[in-house]
Amino acid sequence: MDALDAYPGFANTGTPQTRAREAAAFLTHADFESVGLRYVKEINEANYGRKCDDTEPYGCPAGREAYYGRGPIMFSWNFNYKAAGDALGLDLLNDPWLVERDPSVAWQTALWYWNTQNGPGVMTSHEAMVGGAGFGQTIRSLNGALECDGGNPESVATGGGPRHRPGGGCRGPGPGVVPSGNPSGTPRGRVPGRVGRPGGRIRGGRFRAAGLSAPRGCGSGCRP
Q1: DSSP letter, residue 77
Q2: Cis bond leading into 215, ω under 30°?
Q3: For 112, how many CA atoms within 13 A lie in the half-sphere containing its CB?
Q4: Model confidence over 154-196: pLDDT tens digits?
Q5: CA 190 to CA 73: how far, in whole Å?
């Protein structure tokens, strides 16, 4: 409830159909990124050290390997922990492990990104779903650096294998339509940890879904 209270517009904007579609889109991403909500953190430890951006003035005070993907959209990178922590009143830059220790914080960071950050896209995922741009634009906002414009085509293929991302690609199948006939996703199918940098800078570090290609996810590749 803390997560929903932080962003009251989430799944509560527009018509009942629009609200349902936004909730379904978010849960579909969460299901895919966390492999059916089975994982609270990135599995492939080889990627941990890649999520520290040394160009940021605050650096990585918790250590270079501390900012790996966590939570339902595999929220990652030091700049996202810093920005989300500032917004939520939490010191996530110095204690990123709080996201995996506290389920409420995990969902709050996911909803913070969904509602406030456009990443490599041109709108937030919330704006995409309530404004009619559709599910495909949420992929672009959460994981567009890897999955859009020809990147990782297996992951966004419609009707693919059980770990493919539904949606007909980053353009989406139409205004606000969640494809596949299963609103909660088949594990579906941006991170939407994606998950892009605050201010629209590409971060490219969410749990990476690679469809049936190996290896599968966790910020660039692992299979449970």
Answers
A1: -
A2: yes
A3: 27
A4: 544 433 333 344 444 676 533 333 333 322 222 222 233 345 4
A5: 7
What distance in Å separates the CA atoms of residue 159 and residue 106, rounded to the nearest whole number?
A: 30
Which of the residues are catalytic? 33
Yes or no: say if 48 and 224 are a contact pair by the CB < 8 Å rule.
no
- Residue 67: partners with Cβ closer than 8 Å, 6 or more residues away: 48, 51, 52, 60, 76, 77, 78, 80, 81, 96
Question: What residue type is assigned to position 221 of the chain?
Answer: G
The DSSP secondary-structure symbol of 158 reads T
The answer to pTM > 0.85 is no
- From residue 169, give the alpha-carbon distance in Å to each of 7, 52, 142, 206: 27, 29, 13, 17
| Closest among 159, 121, 158, 161 to 143, alpha carbons compared | 121
